[in-house]
Amino acid sequence: MPERLPMSMLPAALHIRRGVTAVVGSGGKTTTLATLATLLEAPGSPDMNGTGVDGTHAATAPRIILTTTTHIRPFPFTPLYTGERGSELAQVLDGHPTVCCGTPAQDGKLAAPKMPFDGLARLADYVLAEADGSRALPIKAHAAHEPVVPTETRSLVIVVGAHGFGSSVESVAHRPEIFCRRSGSCPCDPVTPELVAKVLASELSDGAIPCPREASVSILVTHVAGERHLEDARRLHHALGRPVLAVDYPQQALWSIAE
Fold first, then answer.
1. What pLDDT digit, counting tens, does each position of 20-40 carry?
2. What domain of life does the UniProt record list for this protein's source (predicted)?
C-alpha cells in the first residue's frame, strides 16, 4: 500500500543531496524544482530521521540556485542572475536564499548559465537544474542528444506525468516513435505504467538517461489525482522494480510506494 508522507519530506524522499540535482522526464519538472527550492529554504529541512537532507543540521537557510541545462522560463518571484561572475552571483545569494540563474534566450526563456556547474555548486548548497524538455507533454522518451545531465549531478529525479496514462502514445508522449521502439508499442496504443517502465528500464540500462556513477536515482509520478493514479504509480513500481514516489502538488499530497 502507498505510504502517505508529509510534503516536507519530498527532498529527503527524493534523496536530494547538497550539490547538483538534475530533474528530467516530463509532466511536472518545473513545479518539482520550485517545490524543492521552497522546502529546502527552510533551515534544517528534515529527512526521515529529523536531520538535514544530507544528514546534517543546518543552522541557517541554505543557498539555492534554480537553473537549466536546456531551456526554462524564469521562476516568478525569484531573483534572476544572467551574468557570468561568481562574485556577483554570491552577492545576490547573500540577499536572497534562492536565485534563478541562466543565459537570456529567445521568447523570454533562459538557456544554461555561462558559469560551469561545479562553480555553481561551490556558491550554493543546492543547484537544482531542469535538464530535459518535453513540450509540456506528460510522457517522454529520449533522443540521443537528451537529457543534458551535468556530470556533477548527485541526485537524478525522473518525472512521469500520471495524467498521460490511458491516453494514446501519439497524443501524450514526446518523441512517440522512440517511445514505441523502446516499449514495443504502437502509436495508437494506450500508455500504461508497464510500457513506461519498459522505456525507463531501457533508457537507464543503455545510458539514454545518463546517470553519473555516484548519483542517486528517484522516480517521481506527478499529477496524481485519486486512487486510479495511485494504482498506476503502484503498477509502475512493480513493473520497474524500483521505489516510486507519487505527488499531487495542488493538494500537497505525497506518497511513497515501495516493498
1. 999 999 999 999 999 999 999
2. Bacteria
Per-residue pLDDT reduced to its tens digit, 2-12: 999 999 999 99
In the chain, which ranges are continuous DSSP H helix? 10-13, 29-41, 86-95, 117-123, 169-172, 176-183, 193-206, 227-240
- Rg over alpha carbons for the chain, rounded to the nearest Å, is 18
For residue 91, which amino acid is it?
Q
**What residues contact residue 48 under an 8 Å CB cut-off, 6+ apart?**
9, 12, 13
Contact 133, 145 (CB under 8 A): no
> Which pLDDT band holds residue 43 (cuts at 50, 70, 90)?
low
- For residue 128, give the C-alpha cell: 537544482
Tell me which H or E stretch contains 218. strand 216-222
Q: How do the domains of the chain map onto residue ranges?
A: 3-257
| C-alpha cell read off for 3 | 505510504
Buried b (16+ CB within 10 A) or exposed e, 54-84: beeebeeebbbbbbbbbbbebbeeeeebeee
- Report if pTM > 0.90: yes
